[in-house]
């Protein structure tokens, strides 16, 4: 089946088998190896990407289900050589040990900040409950997300990710999940 | 892990979907949000020959005010349910239970209809549906029929849906102004409920006028704690009355034993969690 998916701002048209998982399509066909496969059972969240602006586990989505839709991976966050504020906050707060969970943590953190631009510690931990870190590095992850929230005030969201609107840092519109 | 090969169709109307299901026979499988089905396919616990993807059926999304009830499209995601103002106002129990399902990524994809049709005894939405007297609107080759929640869940992962039949909408009678709470017990983040209790109460002048209590994972299907409901109605909504009523939580249930808990412990949890859920619903 032929599908066209916009990934990190670029349209890709490919022939895929219906059983192909989105994460395998991203990594093996499109070379987007920044998105990793962790548990392969839908638990760990390492493969988290955004599908039309909302976080999903790309091991629990078929590539054909992304047909005609927009995917953002961790590789699509930096702009003009500058890291996304959440990436920079993870770097500055040393929010990783081995780093394997980091792509998913960052993508989910951005989703969380789109819904809640100023989460307290409890809200961060609940917002990241679908992402597991086997190095138990959660302390600094929580610290990084709260730091990123301060840097990004008043908020993240699908609008911030849109490639054609650089440096737009506005609260996302309500209907796409931001601002509440 | 990669699923076994299957044919894939993405119909654009419910009628097309029903036709595809009928033609696909017993090896056809419905794909709603896919958050239960895709892990099962990846682990090859199932290998359908045809997958019918409902994600193009926009007619099955959204929440509609239908007089004394809400009509919720089966493909409405958990994320949409938990944020919907009509559900929050008229069926808060469903909103509260949905917030406890899995994790944010899964709630973005998973759907109300998918979770109900999957009928996992440990799933968090069947018990609230039962407590709310929800009605499942099903469409098959013979037309549309409505099945009350009490008749919809018939066993482990088994519903009253006939072959070729699709759950299209969930009708939820409005319980406006009722207090509600979903008390879920599990050990680790994003895990299924070991036991959970769904409670909705109408309290007038300090007296319980109506009470609904549904239990998750206290048997192969969700069950109503009828003994608790009977004990509460007509009594003052006090801590003593709630504690007494909660002792009847496990009456008539058939909880299973597994790696998480044995039947006796589940009966204990049902009592403790019922007390907490009803107390929180009264104070909501």
UniProtKB/TrEMBL annotation, chain A:
Pathway: Alkaloid degradation; nicotine degradation. Its EC number is 1.2.7.4. Residues 151-180 are annotated as: Disordered. Residues 159-173 have a biased composition (Basic and acidic residues). Residues 1-77 form the 2Fe-2S ferredoxin-type domain. Keywords: 2Fe-2S, Iron, Iron-sulfur, Metal-binding, Oxidoreductase. SUPFAM superfamilies: 2Fe-2S ferredoxin-like, CO dehydrogenase ISP C-domain like. One of its GO terms (molecular function) is anaerobic carbon-monoxide dehydrogenase activity. It is an enzyme of class 1 (oxidoreductase). This is Carbon-monoxide dehydrogenase small subunit.
TrEMBL record, chain B:
Keywords: FAD, Flavoprotein, Oxidoreductase. SUPFAM superfamilies: CO dehydrogenase flavoprotein C-terminal domain-like, FAD-binding/transporter-associated domain-like. The keyword Flavoprotein applies. PROSITE patterns: FAD_PCMH (PS51387). Signal peptide: none annotated. Residues 1-177 form the FAD-binding PCMH-type domain. It is an enzyme of class 1 (oxidoreductase). This is Carbon-monoxide dehydrogenase medium subunit.
């Amino acid at each position: 089946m032929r599908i066209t998916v916009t990934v990190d701002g670029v349209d890709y048209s490919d022939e895929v088998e219906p059983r192909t998982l989105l994460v395998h399509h991203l990594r093996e066909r499109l070379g987007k190896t920044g998105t990793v496969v962790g548990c392969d059972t839908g638990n760990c969240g390492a493969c988290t990407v955004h599908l039309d602006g909302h976080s999903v586990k790309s091991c629990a989505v078929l590539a054909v289900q992304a047909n005609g839709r927009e995917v953002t991976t961790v590789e699509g966050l930096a702009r003009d050589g500058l890291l996304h504020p959440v990436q920079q906050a993870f770097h500055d707060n040393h929010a990783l040990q081995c780093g394997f969970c980091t792509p998913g943590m960052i993508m989910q953190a951005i989703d969380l900040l789109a819904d809640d631009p100023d989460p307290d510690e409890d809200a961060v931990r609940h917002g990241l409950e679908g992402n597991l870190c086997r190095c138990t590095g959660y302390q600094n992850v929580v610290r990084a997300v709260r730091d990123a929230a301060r840097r990004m005030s008043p908020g993240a969201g699908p609008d911030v990710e849109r490639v054609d609107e650089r440096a737009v840092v506005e609260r996302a519109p309500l209907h796409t999940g931001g601002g509440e | 892990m990669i699923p076994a090969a299957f044919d894939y169709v993405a119909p654009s109307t419910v009628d097309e979907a029903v036709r595809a299901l009928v033609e696909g026979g017993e090896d056809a499988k419905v794909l709603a949000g896919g958050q239960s089905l895709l892990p099962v396919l990846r682990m090859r616990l199932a290998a359908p020959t045809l997958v019918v993807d409902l994600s193009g059926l926009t007619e099955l999304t959204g929440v509609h005010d239908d007089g004394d009830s809400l009509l919720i499209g089966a493909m409405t995601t958990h994320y949409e349910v938990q944020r919907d103002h009509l559900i929050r106002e008229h069926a808060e129990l469903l909103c509260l239970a949905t917030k406890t399902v899995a994790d944010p990524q899964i709630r973005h994809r998973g759907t109300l209809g998918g979770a109900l049709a999957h009928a996992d005894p440990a799933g968090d939405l069947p018990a609230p549906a039962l407590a709310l007297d929800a009605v499942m609107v099903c469409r098959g080759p013979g037309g549309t029929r409505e099945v009350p929640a009490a008749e919809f869940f018939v066993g482990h992962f088994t519903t009253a849906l006939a072959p070729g039949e699709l759950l299209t909408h969930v009708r939820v009678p409005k319980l406006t102004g009722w207090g509600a709470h979903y008390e879920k017990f599990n050990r680790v983040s994003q895990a299924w409920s070991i036991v959970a209790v769904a409670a909705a109460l109408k309290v007038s002048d300090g007296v319980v006028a109506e009470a609904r209590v549904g239990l998750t994972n206290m048997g192969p299907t969700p069950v109503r704690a009828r003994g608790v409901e009977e004990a509460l109605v007509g009594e003052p909504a006090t801590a003593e009355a709630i504690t007494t009523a909660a002792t009847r939580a496990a009456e008539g249930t058939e909880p299973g034993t597994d790696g998480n808990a044995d039947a006796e412990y589940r009966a204990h949890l049902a009592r403790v969690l019922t007390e907490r859920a009803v107390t929180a619903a009264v104070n909501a």
